[in-house]
Amino acid sequence: MRVLRVQYGTTEAPKQFAESLRTTGFAVIANHPIPHDLIRDVFAEWGKWFDGNDKMNYKFDAKTQAGYFPFKTENAKDSKVKDLKEFFHLFLETPIPAGFTGKTREMYDRMNGLGVELLGWLQENTPDNVRKLFSMPLTMMSSGSKETLLRPIHYPGLKGDEEPGAIRAAAHEDINLITLLPAATAPGLQVKDLQGNWHDVECNPGDIVINAGDMLQEATGGHYISTTHRVMNPSGPTAKDPRYSMPLFIHPRPEVRLSERHTAGSYLEERLREIGLLKPGEKKFA
């Protein structure tokens, strides 16, 4: 499985990026414009917060889906075992917990800007017969969206008493348009090819992994692939080490029509129920 490492700023980058998402669902962007020091500092701030004692003061709201999700809250679609992680949902209008600098919001804004640029690359390099399926250009789908989500994640070190079959993030596909994932603090990300084989995804400091989500696959009639991926547990001497990651999920506005069967809002609510974050009958959007 050949996930392309695309050099940001080169003339070939947009076409290479689109081709990698078409054939594998993933791409790696090297030399991206988000400062490495900013990413490092934001990781450090959230690492300190997850180690603190006031997390439950920010517990998530089921309707807005914003806030802190305690350890073992979420399961992957079709998985009965909870993932070994805790996380925080930060949307455009979500207040950041006390004690943070403005760097998290800066990172949100910079990553969102890069995400819109990458959607423009896809718009330009998608065949005409696929583009005609769009209800609007890809870049307009997420314009002004309050659903684009930054998710700081803490995977605690393993204790050895984990439930059988429990891993840091069970096999799943993302629901959104595209996901931007700066290099995590430890390896573990794997992607599944069409033959069912798993492959490690390398992401060096200074790189960002990008993957297509189900909404992009839906809007393009399957032209871009939403690929199954997971985060495996560490083993050996690193088993007790924590892992931190911070994906940004680029979401359309809820009313955006993706296909004849789904708006962005209806597709997201369906997925939130499947992964245990909305109860049956609950709605996120009025």
Which helices and strands occur, and which strands form pairs?
Layout: E1 5-7, H1 13-23, E2 26-30, H2 36-50, E3 67-69, E4 86-89, H3 103-124, H4 128-131, H5 138-141, E5 149-150, E6 153-155, E7 169-172, E8 178-182, E9 189-192, E10 198-200, E11 207-212, H6 214-219, E12 229-231, E13 243-245, E14 248-250, H7 264-274
Parallel strand pairs: 1-2
Antiparallel strand pairs: 2-11, 3-4, 4-6, 5-14, 6-13, 7-12, 8-11, 8-14, 9-10, 9-12
Helix pairs in contact: 1-3, 2-3
TL;DR?
With 286 residues, this protein is α+β, with helices and mostly antiparallel strands. It has a single domain, classed as Jelly Rolls (Sandwich), CATH 2.60.120.330.
Question: What would you note in describing this structure?
Answer:
With 286 residues, this protein is an alpha+beta fold. It has a single domain (5-274), classed as B-lactam Antibiotic, Isopenicillin N Synthase, Chain (Jelly Rolls, Sandwich), CATH 2.60.120. It is built from 7 helices and 14 strands. Strand 9 and strand 10 form a beta hairpin. Helix 1 (13-23) packs across helix 3 and helix 2 packs across helix 3. The longest helix has 22 residues, at 103-124. 37% of the residues are buried.
